[in-house]
Backbone:
């Protein structure tokens, strides 16, 4: 196996952050799970609470969805929504929930597995190409995160020319921590993965001959780009873009810079928002700002060490993040460039403001609607969120009067 080894220099400047006072109190949340861990810079966690002063109008676009996981906005109106059990559902611009689309790959519908993300190719209007991520059955109770592409017909009843462009390796016996967002980026596609959670498997997040706990980058056809960071590294899988992740369920391209950012689940504490750079190691499971669910330490027992990238932001206690995006739109013009992140637990829409790459403030909205799994922007700039439940829904958020 090819594993990234890092010397733990706890006494270095990297491991000894300069701490400054927060400029204001953070949003209301529980006590830290690991209070002895301090941030590496001010506002890396518990940034000052901000208040947009906006009361949201909440409209139910569609309900009756079974554990919806991913949503894509269609250019001519309407949406595509995945249901974890294995259905891809078109929703009309009028909110009509239509019959499941035929031709979707078979999924491993167990525990956290199933049909997961959906995204449109950048040229969808011409090509009708969409991308899906799912837990792929691999036989003998094994499964793997996979990404597939297919062509959606005009009446949105059938997916054809379906083929995998990426399959995680090796397959896993543990139906947890699949990731998995798919992010088209021109001629390339990013696929995010988890490390399947178990103590035996999580260490694979540091192994370059496995795609557990990684972000992969392939072409739209599933080929390996020549400029991937480990193409020339002996023993490394060339599709790997970054490593040392736990379970990434959110990813987006920052519009003003073209950079990939990712949002991942921590353990008990330590959810992370990362700016993802090619070939970079984000530390799991050697370092973490969280702890084991049992209360024991993660890996080295330290939140940081030389050779591992710091998260741009982390939460303790967790928000249990799903999808996220950088807001673009006219309807909430004061939010342009802000992070909008979904929270499964305690459940909310989390807004972060940025100054450069650093977080400057945090606001929590929609705290009373349960598990928010994904977020998207409608054509007019309204915000769409998925409520993950046995009777799940798509909600449309617009500014209330006086906003």
Residues:
């Amino acid at each position: 196996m090819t594993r990234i080894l890092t010397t733990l220099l706890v006494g270095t400047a990297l491991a000894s952050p300069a701490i400054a006072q927060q400029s204001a109190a953070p949003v209301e949340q529980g006590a830290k799970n690991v209070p002895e861990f301090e941030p590496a810079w001010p506002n890396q966690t518990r940034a000052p609470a901000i208040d947009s002063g906006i009361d949201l109008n909440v409209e139910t676009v569609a309900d009756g969805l079974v554990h919806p996981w991913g949503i894509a906005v269609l250019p001519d109106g309407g949406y595509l929504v995945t249901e974890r059990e294995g259905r891809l559902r078109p929703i009309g611009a009028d909110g009509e929930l239509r019959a499941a689309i035929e031709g979707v790959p078979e999924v491993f519908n167990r525990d956290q597995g199933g049909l997961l993300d959906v995204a449109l190719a950048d040229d969808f209007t011409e090509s009708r190409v969409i991308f899906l991520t799912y837990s792929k059955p691999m036989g003998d109770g094994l499964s793997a995160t996979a990404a597939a592409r297919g062509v959606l017909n005009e009446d949105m009843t059938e997916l054809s020319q379906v083929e995998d462009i990426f399959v995680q390796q090796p397959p896993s016996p543990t139906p947890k921590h699949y990731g998995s967002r798919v992010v088209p980026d021109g001629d390339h596609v990013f696929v995010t993965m988890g490390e399947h959670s178990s103590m035996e498997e999580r260490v694979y997040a540091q192994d370059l001959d496995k795609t557990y706990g990684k972000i992969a980058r392939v072409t739209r056809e599933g080929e390996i780009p020549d400029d991937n960071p480990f193409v020339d590294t002996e023993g490394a899988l060339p599709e790997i873009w970054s490593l040392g992740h736990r379970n990434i369920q959110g990813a987006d391209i920052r519009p003003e810079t073209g950079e990939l950012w990712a949002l991942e689940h921590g353990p008990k504490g330590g959810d992370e928002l990362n700016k993802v750079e090619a070939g970079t190691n984000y530390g799991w499971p050697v370092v973490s700002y969280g702890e084991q669910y049992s209360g024991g330490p993660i890996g080295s027992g330290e939140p940081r060490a030389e050779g591992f990238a710091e998260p741009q932001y982390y939460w303790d206690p967790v928000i249990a993040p799903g999808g996220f995006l950088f807001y673009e739109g006219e309807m909430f013009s004061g939010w342009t460039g802000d992070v909008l992140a979904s929270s499964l637990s305690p459940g909310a829409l989390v807004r972060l403001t940025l100054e450069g790459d650093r977080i400057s403030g945090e606001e929590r909205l929609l705290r009373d609607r349960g598990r928010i799994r994904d977020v998207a922007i409608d054509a007019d700039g309204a915000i769409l969120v998925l409520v993950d439940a046995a009777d799940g829904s798509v909600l449309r958020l617009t500014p209330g009067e006086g906003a």
Summary: The longest helix spans residues 124-127. Confidence is low (pLDDT under 50) at residues 4-22. The CA atoms of residues 53 and 403 lie 7 Å apart.
